[in-house]
């Protein structure tokens, strides 16, 4: 905690953690039922180090290559880090992703599900997965179309044997997020899934009200990305 950047990171982290706790309590939920995935993409090393020094261990990255450049060294110092992949995954990066990450949040198509299943089988490292849902049906965005979700989940489990633990979404920037969060919650309930990864810096308190178990918060924890 010797550098100003470390202290700043620790202060921001404590503020976000406090807001998460308050939002959970306001929703009648136990604060420990909401995990903070601190999104460290494009953040300077010092800020991430500050969050680690402050005791945080759960992080999200959206690019395999960027994460590969940074996290193995942090892991040597902090072996109990847990890393979630929250960005789209190309099948040619599956091997690297399975080596580096602990949870894959962005399973969204049969080819990717099959490639992950093969890699899990090959390595004996079967990671928990979230299925990403494109709740706004946006053409440029990753995620399974809402209409195809139940069928895709059946295939992930029956055909590929994936350990699907929840659903993840990124609502359209121009929409109110509540209806998207409500949709995701209902889809998870219908499919017997406990995990709900939803809510970012601008809307994580709303997401907690709608049942988020994992909020993915970047700029509110680390400051604006460079
Ligand atoms: C960048 C990112 C976040 C965090 O965004 P902030 O607005 O900085 O909190 C969350 N989820 C995903 C998928 C992201 O790519």
What's the layout of helices and strands?
Elements: H1 4-26, E1 35-39, H2 45-53, E2 58-61, H3 64-77, E3 82-85, H4 94-100, E4 103-107, H5 110-123, E5 129-133, H6 149-158, E6 164-169, H7 178-190, E7 195-197, H8 204-209, E8 214-217, H9 219-222
Parallel strand pairs: 1-2, 1-8, 2-3, 3-4, 4-5, 5-6, 6-7
This protein binds pyridoxal-5'-phosphate.
Model description:
The structure is a single chain. The protein has an 8-stranded parallel β-sheet with strand order 7-6-5-4-3-2-1-8. The protein has 226 residues and is of the alpha/beta class. It has helices at 4-26, 45-53, 64-77, 94-100, 110-123, 149-158, 178-190, 204-209, 219-222; strands at residues 35-39, 58-61, 82-85, 103-107, 129-133, 164-169, 195-197, 214-217. The two termini are 22 Å apart. Helix content is 44%, strand content 16%.
């Amino acid at each position: 905690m010797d550098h100003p950047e470390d202290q700043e990171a620790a202060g921001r982290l404590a503020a976000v953690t406090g807001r998460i706790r308050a939002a959970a309590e306001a929703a009648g939920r136990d604060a420990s039922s909401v995990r903070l995935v601190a999104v460290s993409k494009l953040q300077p090393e010092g800020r991430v180090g500050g969050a680690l020094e402050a005791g945080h261990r759960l992080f999200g990255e959206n690019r395999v290559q960027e994460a590969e450049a940074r996290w193995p060294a942090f892991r040597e110092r902090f072996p109990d880090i847990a890393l979630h992949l929250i960005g789209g995954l190309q099948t040619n990066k599956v091997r690297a992703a399975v080596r580096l990450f602990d949870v894959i949040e962005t399973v969204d198509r049969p080819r990717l599900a099959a490639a992950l299943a093969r890699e899990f089988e090959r390595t004996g490292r079967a990671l928990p997965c979230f299925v990403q849902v494109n709740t706004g049906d946006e053409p440029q965005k990753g995620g399974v179309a809402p209409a195809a979700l139940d069928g895709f989940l059946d295939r992930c489990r029956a055909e590929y044997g994936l350990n699907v633990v929840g659903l993840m979404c990124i609502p359209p920037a121009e929409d109110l997020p509540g209806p998207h969060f409500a949709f995701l919650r209902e889809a998870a309930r219908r499919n017997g899934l406990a995990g709900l990864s939803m809510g970012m810096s601008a809307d994580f308190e709303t997401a907690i009200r709608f049942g988020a178990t994992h909020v993915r918060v970047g700029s509110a924890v680390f400051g604006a990305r460079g």
